[in-house]
Design goal:
Helix content: over 70%
Number of helices: 3
Number of strands: 2
Structural class: mainly alpha
Distance between the termini: 20 Å
Strand content: under 5%
Largest sheet: 2 strands, antiparallel
Radius of gyration: 25 Å
């Protein structure tokens, strides 16, 4: 794969994004000029107010010390899971590099397939 091909693909994606933004602008404008849409938007706004009131009540319940402790414990566990997933990702990359195999057998004897993905960042 050549750098020119990648640059061309980036340009195509950029041009398509510009086109999509134009169409989206026209779409949004057409919706805003539709009376039925405006009525639905008002109903949605009214529902948001009711939801916000319910959310406030839920937050008051969550102030319970026992519930706060459980929430903190869940946050810690989520962070630990995230950390272990990142470590596993690196370990799988190293395993593939060393063995060349795209499969690994777990402790239960199940064969798992390794899947890699790549993203372009600025």
């Amino acid at each position: 794969m050549s750098i020119e091909m990648i640059q061309r693909r980036i340009k195509i994606i950029s041009d398509l994004q510009v086109d999509m933004n134009k169409v989206k602008g026209n779409y949004d404008e057409a919706l805003e000029n539709n009376p039925m849409y405006q009525e639905a938007q008002q109903q949605e706004e009214d529902m948001k107010k009711v939801k916000e009131e319910a959310k406030i009540k839920v937050e008051k319940v969550k102030e319970n010390p026992t519930l706060k402790g459980m929430m903190d414990q869940m946050k810690e566990l989520k962070e630990e899971i995230k950390s272990n997933r990142e470590a596993l990702s690196q370990e799988l990359a190293d395993y593939y590099k060393d063995s060349g195999s795209m499969e690994i057998v777990d402790e239960d004897g199940n064969t798992k397939h390794i899947k890699f993905s790549a993203k372009l960042t600025n």
